[in-house]
Amino acid sequence: AQSVAQPEDQVNVAEGNPLTVKCTYSVSGNPYLFWYVQYPNRGLQFLLKYITGDNLVKGSYGFEAEFNKSQTSFHLKKPSALVSDSALYFCAVRNPNTGFQKLVFGTGTRLLVSP
Amino acid sequence: DTEVTQTPKHLVMGMTNKKSLKCEQHMGHRAMYWYKQKAKKPPELMFVYSYEKLSINESVPSRFSPECPNSSLLNLHLHALQPEDSALYLCASSQITGNRDNYGYTFGSGTRLTVV
């Protein structure tokens, strides 16, 4: 079965500092990995994905993530955090070997950026 | 059009009511999904439709009844719900075949359901 783990319930960072939100995955074969962001009372917004190719993936709003196969990780990063980045972040995985259909989410990490 | 539209945005219903949630997309996606999300929890998959046919039912109680009348529309019919069914219901869609870069999901903003 496929799964993702987000070990931190909350990450606190000061505005202007770099941020990292951690994600590790467990899936047989090569995974499709995604990051989504959710603002209060809203749906999920797509940030970026890794399917294949370069391990460093750049996405929306200045976010990027690095796929590390040996560590089975896909951490989300941003060089300089903004207060407006404060939200709930979900890592998700899909196993292409078991079909396109099931996207499994991690438990989410709340990012709080202080002014 | 690159959106998934869900209506209504908010719904309050009694335990004896019948109501429906609606989802619409015009991106040509042939897979559509219903997710349920409780507060501060990740979304949980309920149903998957591919080519307008139900392909996954994650052991969802029969008081939730999905319907996919055509490739652009997805409904979730609700009947005799319980207060614990109160949640944010998210619809999503995705490609099935083609360029792997298109395999991401697009989510709607959700329907906030309260069962009283």
Largest sheet of chain A: 6 strands, mixed
- Summarize the largest interface: chains and residue counts: A-B, 25 and 29 residues
Rg calc of chain B: 14 Å
- Which structural class fits the helix and strand makeup of chain A? mainly beta
Overall mean confidence score, pLDDT of chain A: 91
Number of strands of chain A: 12
Broad shape of chain A: globular
User: Any idea what the shape of chain B is?
Assistant: globular
Estimate the mean pLDDT confidence of chain B: 91
Q: Treating each run of at least 4 consecutive H or I residues as one helix, how many helices of chain A?
A: 0
Percent helix of chain A, as a range, is under 10%
Order of SSEs of chain B: EEEEEEEEEEE
Helix tally of chain B equals 0
- Low-pLDDT windows of residues of chain A: none
Q: What fraction strand of chain B?
A: over 45%
Number-wise, the strands of chain B total 11
Kindly report how far apart the N and C termini of chain B lie. 36 Å
Oligomer: heterodimer
What does this structure look like?
The complex is a heterodimer of chains A (115) and B (116). Chain A is mostly beta strands and 115 residues long. Chain A is 0% helix and 50% strand. In chain A, strands 2, 5, 6, 10, 11 and 12 form a 6-stranded mixed β-sheet that branches. Chain B is mainly β and 116 residues long. Chain B is built from no helices and 11 strands. In chain B, the strands form 2 sheets. In chain B, strands 2, 4, 5, 6, 9, 10 and 11 form a 7-stranded mixed β-sheet that branches. In chain B, strands 1-3-8-7 form a 4-stranded antiparallel β-sheet, with no helix packed on it. The mean pLDDT of chain B is 91. Chain A binds chain B through residues 32, 34, 36, 41-46, 49, 51-52, 88, 90, 94, 96, 100-108, and chain B through 4, 6, 31, 33, 40-43, 45, 48, 50, 55-56, 88, 90, 92, 94, 96, 100-101, 103-110, 112.
